[in-house]
Amino acid sequence: MKKILLVDDEILIREIIRDSIDWEKEGFIYSGDASDGEVALPIIERVQPDILITDILMPFMNGLELSSIMSKQFPDMKIIIISGHAEFEYARSAMQIGVQEYCLKPISPAELLKVLHKVSAEIDKEREIKMQLQLLKAKEHESSTISQDKLLNDLCSGFMTTSEVMHHSASIQLNIIAHYYIVTVLDLREAEADKHEEMNVMHDNERLLLDKCKILKENYKQLMFQRSRSESVWIIKGDTLENLKLELQLFQDLQKAISEEAHSLPISIGIGSVQDRLQKVHISFLDAMEDVHWRRLSRQNRNVLSEMKTATLDPTLFLDRGAFMDFLKIGSHNKLSSFVADYAAALVDINWHTSSIGFYILNDVTIEAFRSNKDMYRHLTEPEKALQQFQQMIGNIRTWEETCSYLTHLIEQFWTWRSRIYDKYSDMIAKVKEYIQLNFEKDNFSLQDSAEYVNLSPNYLSRVFSQETSQTFIEYLTQVRIRKAMDLLKSTSAKSYEIAFLVGYNDPHYFSNLFKRLTGMTPKEFRKNGTADEALDILKGDSLHEND
């Protein structure tokens, strides 16, 4: 219902208008009246009517002055003037101010109602348009947010080329360029909850994490997307390595403060590897996901271990994980026995038959070995199973000598994995490259196809391919296609758009732009003046990674 306010210096007119109309029945609220514009001002401020009905000639402040003020202060308010003066100047002034209707006295209640309903309909129409615009803006904002989340998710998944990332980020005005990148993952997942009450606590924590991530995003201007209810992913940028380190430290400090404020939420932070190309952000993401997995396992184990140490009141039951990791990386076989004996000396008095603390201490060291030395076993498709086998060995330990044997075996196994990894990868990479050579002309050929061919997951293949070849799968595929395009341009008379299709691009315009970016020449220029050696030198250089 629309609120009506009447301003007229003639009390009889005010009473007639007020009493001769059933306002509520007609869909209006009669909010009051005033004898002149000056008296009306505070009433209008308080009531904020939808429609103002006013006379023109009144003492102190006339209707035109009042209308002029209201049009500026309340632009959505509709104004109807009823006046006994038909002079054109009055009407023109009223229209210039923005008055909706100019009616001459005397005006009957029926005529006034007709005008009021007309103005009311205009208000409804304007409000509907305004609401639609607000909904449209909200949808545009939501669409932009969704697009940003999808863009960052695809970037971390390795599904987009650098050119595609740059194009889409520009379309949503997202600044994604930096010299260095590192991905971090915030993870809330705990062990599986069996009880209904525990599930409720987990869901409450997930909602709390979402709220806190929003706060963190507002205070920390880096790229972020919500991967799931329990995981948020942050892409941290830096102009220098030192700047990146400072940004990462700031992020960790803010996260720690928010976690403490949220009653110590059990959050694990996975930190990926530093990358200097946009195309390799997904490698940092994969490293962060793997890191957070092992950190979560380690945290769960150390929580139990901490409780057990408190119960035993024996602070000497401690193994230096850092010393073990250092020996694992740079130790030698001739020092292995002496290192293990010295390292395990703190456990010599443990009664393995009556106490479980030794099992948790060894489990802690084992989990940390898997978390900190992923490069040694990256050929394993299911490292969790290998961890479980070691944990089963821990469960069978009953003496200190068996403890030393276990630690020796753990170290030797990691060294064996490290020695095997190089031969295994060279064969696998060769198979993938051969498969690319046979299938690059298919426009829908992807990392997924190659991963299926060598029986690996796409993420795993992507990471290994990048580590072993120093270029991403997409970069290598692009290089193969462009090399073939150069050959066809020189050896055939096929048109540029035909060659685009022959090398796997169904968009000739995209192919031409890509060809020029990577070779420094358009296809036409290359066919006329370019040489294969010249272009190949460019392909081997940095231009393949342009805008990374």
From TrEMBL:
Principal place of residence: cytoplasm
Pfam families reported for this sequence: HTH_18, Response_reg
Cited CDD domains: REC_YesN-like
Response regulatory domain mapped to chain residues: 3-120
Signal peptide stretch: none
Residues annotated as domain HTH araC/xylS-type: 430-529
BP terms from Gene Ontology: phosphorelay signal transduction system
Keyword set includes Signal: no
Residue positions where 4-aspartylphosphate is found in the record: D55
Alphabetized InterPro entries for the sequence: CheY-like_superfamily, Homeodomain-like_sf, HptR, HTH_AraC, Sig_transdc_resp-reg_receiver, Tscrpt_reg_AraC-type_HTH
Alphabetized UniProt keyword annotations: Cytoplasm, DNA-binding, Phosphoprotein, Transcription, Transcription regulation, Two-component regulatory system
Cellular location(s): Cytoplasm
Single Gene Ontology MF annotation: DNA-binding transcription factor activity
One GO cellular component term: cytoplasm
Protein name: DNA-binding response regulator
Organism: Paenibacillus ferrarius
Taxonomy of the source species: Bacteria, Bacillati, Bacillota, Bacilli, Bacillales
